Amino acid sequence: MGIPVTPIQHQPKPVHASKHSGSLFNYTLKRAGQSLITVLIVITVVFLLMRLLPVEGYFGDGYDKLDASQREAVLKSMGLLEPWYMQLKNFYVDLFRGDLGTSIIFRPQIPITEIIGPKIPYSAYFGFAALLMSLSLGLCLGVFQAREKGKWFDRLGTGYVVFINAVPAAVYFLFIQLYATQAFKLPILFNKDKPSSWILPAICMSLGGIAGYAMWIRRFMVDELNKDYIKLARAKGLSNTDVMFKHVLRNAFVPMAQYLPTSLLMTIAGSLYIESLYSIPGMGGLLIDAISRQDNPLVQALVLIYSTIGIFGLFMGDVLMAVIDPRIKLDKKGGAR
Amino acid sequence: MVQSILSAKDVVIKFSLRGRVLTAIRGASLELYEGQTLAIVGESGSGKSVFTKSFVGMLDTNGWVESGSIMFEEQDIAKFKGDKQWSTIRGKKIAMVFQDPMTSLNPLRTIGMQIQEVVELHHHLKAAEAKKRTIEILTDVGISSPEDRYSQFPHEFSGGMRQRVVIAIAIACNPKILICDEPTTALDVTIQAQILELIRKLQEQYNLTVIYITHDLGVVANVADQVAVMYAGDIIEYGTAGDIFYNAQHPYTWALLSSLPQLGIKGQPLYSIKGTPPNLFNEIKGDAFAPRNPKALKIDYVERPPYFQVSPTHYARTWLLDPRSPKMDPPETIKHMREKFVRYSV
Question: Do the Cβ atoms of A262 and A269 come closer than 8 Å?
């Protein structure tokens, strides 16, 4: 009796498919890890930068009214007298317990989740509505511009893009607020119980996005249109519409795909100018306010949210690209495109 | 006698460019015979591509066929307008292969889908049948393990393999005519021969009529039954490969052949044609080649020569063939070729 020999299994592997999906998983994991590290670096750097600001900032207008010992007591109560590495450690310990801390200046002693929480839905609603409008209208505009390249529709669209980009946004935002409210009998300020007051801010917010998406998709489509494989697709006998949608649009979408998730997620960030114009209680401007008043925990929490969103968006964009563009090599270093 | 399959008569093609009108093709005529291989030769900008593009309605949007007729299957395709009419011909009965296989395929779609698209479009097959047919075609163009290759992307193919795929797309629905626009220019020499051989093989298998557009006279000598020489938007000489290589009549054909490195004499500088082709924005009077022809006749500057028949298969547009014109000897190298031809044929 010899040793039982396990037959070596010679199954022909579906080489391509398995390699691709396997490395896509690895790639996603790797990029996720990198993204997480990036978020941590960003938040740590911001944390340290905030600690480098002069302590006078923490007192606002009240600085002169306090004497040295009172000031020290205030700083101590804010936990700012500990060495920076202890502060950083405490911050991370709290963070991993899911505690973002409390505001120290903006609205003292109020948990940050309570400050930010109610604001997110407003910004997110407007952001989402604007994104939906700018994506659908912008892409349509761009696609038809590319189709009608050089004709009057294309010129009209380009005119719109140039107008939006060249004229300061404040000019047409104000114009819309002043005249559109009169013309269409819409409320001039935001009121969460009046649905009609939601319309104008959402439109204003989408104007820039429409121009941006139209410009980019048109540009990418025109790039693709001039490529040789489009000539071949035509020579195959495909109709103009088939060429446009099956070949040009799909390929033009690849460079767009990288930025779509970011813009999708960034909608909750809100728009500083429009929110103040229509007095919408959103997130826009909160970060600037918090920085200028040195409300450290609030700044940290906002930076954490924004950087997570931004970096997660980029991560999603990269994964999306890898999924739709077969040319992206996933296994080799620096092989992407 | 072989049958004519496509016949172009006095085709004039114009382009409007920045408000000016350019005449790219100035009354060119061409007869294409079924099952044969026609090579169209000429320098860059002579209108080779533009002329053949008009057979499939793929002129750039600023160009149009001004006059003349292109008869194919009892229809004048020069009068075709719009995608709908062309879809009965383009890709279905007349297919094209382009110069650069590296950029001719859509980088984001699998090879299989790009071929299948044509099969489905023109044969109206179901997906499974279309896939079977696609794999057959891949085998026909010499791609090994076609089932695996079917789901691969263009970047996983070499240049020569991609050109095979482009050819597969072209022949996917049994076209009558295959137009190859410099099919081997972008490939290296060893691959060139393979691709030419493949086209020759497919020509027999699928009973194709092939048009080669090229400026490589080596390729022409290899593959062509008929040769058309183009200069400044006109076919100035037309005949069998033998007619053109050994009994050329037009001074431009002489000059073109004389500049072949293979015919150069060792130690002497290689012949080159002086001057530049005429500006197609201007109206060309007389023989377009006259300004570059050191031995041009007076009438060459005044009136355009008609086609003179040299033999039943051989036509040339030069006043030299008019009985009234003085006897003009072709250059030494051409005479040398002729002698070789005479010896060869006797």
Answer: no
Query: Is A237–B108 a contact, with Cβ atoms under 8 angstroms apart?
Result: no
Q: Which domains does chain A have, with CATH numbers?
A: 118-293 (1.10.3720.10)
Strand pairing class (B177-181; B209-214): parallel
Beta pairing, strands B20-33 & B4-17? antiparallel
pTM of the model: 0.77
Closest alpha carbon within chain A to B84? A239
Name the amino acid, one letter, at A10: H
Residue A191 falls in which region: left (phi positive, over 0), alpha (psi -120 to 50) or beta: beta
User: Does the beta carbon of B25 lie under 8 angstroms from any beta carbon of chain A?
Assistant: no
Measuring CA to CA, how many Å separate A237 from each of A33, B163, B240, B299? 47, 19, 31, 46
Instruction: Report CB contact under 8 Å: B91, A236.
Output: yes
Q: What pLDDT is recorded for position A337?
A: 41
φ, ψ dihedrals at B32, nearest 5°: -115, 125
Indicate yes or no: CB of A250 within 8 angstroms of CB of B91: no
Beta bridge partners of B65: B13
Question: Where does the pLDDT of residue A21 fall: very low under 50, low under 70, confident under 90, or very high at 90 and above?
Answer: low
pLDDT higher than 60, residue A331 = no
- Mean of all residue pLDDT scores within chain B: 86
Q: What is the pLDDT of residues B259-268, one digit of tens each?
A: 877 776 777 7
State the pLDDT at residue B343.
Answer: 57
pLDDT-derived band at A94 (thresholds 50, 70, 90) equals confident
At B247, phi and psi to the nearest 5?
A: -140, 40
Q: Does B106 contact chain A (CB < 8 Å)?
A: yes
The answer to whether residue B148 neighbours chain A at the CB level (below 8 Å) is: yes
Specify the higher pLDDT residue, A102 or B300. B300
- Rounded to whole angstroms, how far apart are CA atoms A164 and A162? 6
A228/B106 touch (CB, cutoff 8 Å), yes or no: no
Residue B136 CA, chain-centre distance (Å), reads 28
Residues of B with Cβ-Cβ distance to A326 under 8 angstroms: 107-108, 153, 155
ipTM of the complex: 0.80
CB within 8 Å of B99: residues ≥ 6 apart = B181, B182, B183, B185, B186
Question: Of residues B28 and B260, which shows the higher confidence score?
Answer: B28
CA angle in degrees (0–180, nearest 5) for B153-B159-B160: 110
- CA–CA gap between residue A317 and residue A263 (Å, rounded): 10
Residue of B nearest to A327 (CA): B155
∠ CA(A300), CA(A302), CA(A304), 5° rounding?
A: 65
A70-84, A291-305, B14-28: segment of lowest average pLDDT:
A70-84
Q: Which of B32, B143, B140 is nearest to B94 (CA)?
A: B32
Q: In Å, how far is B16's CA from the nearest CA of chain A?
A: 14
**Residue B92 near chain A (CB below 8 Å):** yes
Q: How far apart are CA A231 and CA B172, in angstroms?
A: 17
At B155, the amino acid letter reads: H
Residue A334 has what pLDDT?
46
Which residues on chain B are in Cβ contact (under 8 Å) with A238?
A: 91, 117, 121
Residue A59 DSSP one-character state: G
List A residues 13-32 in contact with B (Cβ-Cβ < 8 A): 15-17
pLDDT digits (tens, 9 = 90+) for B133-190: 899 999 989 888 888 999 899 988 988 899 999 999 999 878 999 999 888 888 888 8
* 3 state DSSP class of B237: strand
Chain B residue with minimum CA distance to A17? B151
Which candidate from A227, A235, A236 shows the least CB-CB separation from B117?
A: A236
Element spanning A38, H or E: helix A15-51
